[in-house]
Amino acid sequence: MTRPPTAAQRRVIDAADPVTGRLKGTEAQLASLVRHGLAFRHARPPHDHFLTPAGHRLREATPVAPAPETPRASGVFAARIGGEENPPTADATRVREVHSAWQGLLELRRMTNPDGATDRPCGWERAHLVQAAALALEAAGHRPAEAGAEGGYRVRATPQPEAVAVREPDAAALTACAVTLQAAGWQVGEYTEPRTRARYLLASPRRV
């Protein structure tokens, strides 16, 4: 894109679904975003428009307002990565939010993977590794770690390209996390920290 989006276009980008990138706007606004490479029109009915990776980067690089402390504070969903200071309440509403986000992610896989496959991660997940892995774990019912607590999973970025680390002090729970991620389309290996001897997972989105 050679120039910044207009205020109207920016509002459309910022209002996109945080998981799927689905856009709502006038036909002129959506067509303009497509021309600038920030959106694409899906080939299958109902031919909705979605952010491209460039559109996602633009939204994340220049947020309209500072990020909230908790996902629910602004109505924007974020999966639990473990260890948050102010996590969302684990109640029936949260369960519905997580289920809806996971279903939305499966739909995004169907729409953006070239063969429509839903059994392996899509481009959005490879660009948001920690959130994507955490969503797979939370949607499967795994317990995220509370701030200052020992138990529960923690998903963190790593220096390795396209890999996240998953730590869980309980060995059985760590194995269960590996099974969940593998079922969600991730390649998973279990390793040992040389210094602490603690076991952890390295997980990467499967491409085929």
Explain what this protein looks like in three dimensions.
The structure is a single chain. The protein is elongated. Strands 4-5-7-6 form a 4-stranded antiparallel beta sheet, covered by helices on one side. A hairpin with a 6-residue loop joins strand 4 (154-157) and strand 5 (164-167). The chain has helices spanning 7-14, 27-35, 53-61, 71-74, 92-112, 123-127, 129-139, 171-183; strands at 22-23, 39-41, 49-51, 154-157, 164-167, 186-192, 199-205. The protein has 8 helices and 7 strands, in the order αβαββαααααββαββ. 38% of the residues lie in helices and 14% in strands. The protein has 208 residues and is an alpha+beta fold. The model is unreliable at 62-75 (pLDDT under 50).
Relative helix content = 25-40%
Shape: elongated
Number of helices: 8
Mean pLDDT: 85
As a percent range, the share of strand residues is 5-15%
Quick summary:
With about 210 residues, the protein is of the alpha+beta class. It has eight helices and seven strands; from the N terminus they run αβαββαααααββαββ.
Which key terms come to mind for this protein?
single chain, 208 residues, alpha+beta, four-stranded antiparallel beta sheet, 38% helix, 14% strand, elongated
Question: What's the SSE blueprint?
Answer:
Blueprint: H1 7-14, E1 22-23, H2 27-35, E2 39-41, E3 49-51, H3 53-61, H4 71-74, H5 92-112, H6 123-127, H7 129-139, E4 154-157, E5 164-167, H8 171-183, E6 186-192, E7 199-205
Antiparallel strand pairs: 1-3, 2-3, 4-5, 5-7, 6-7
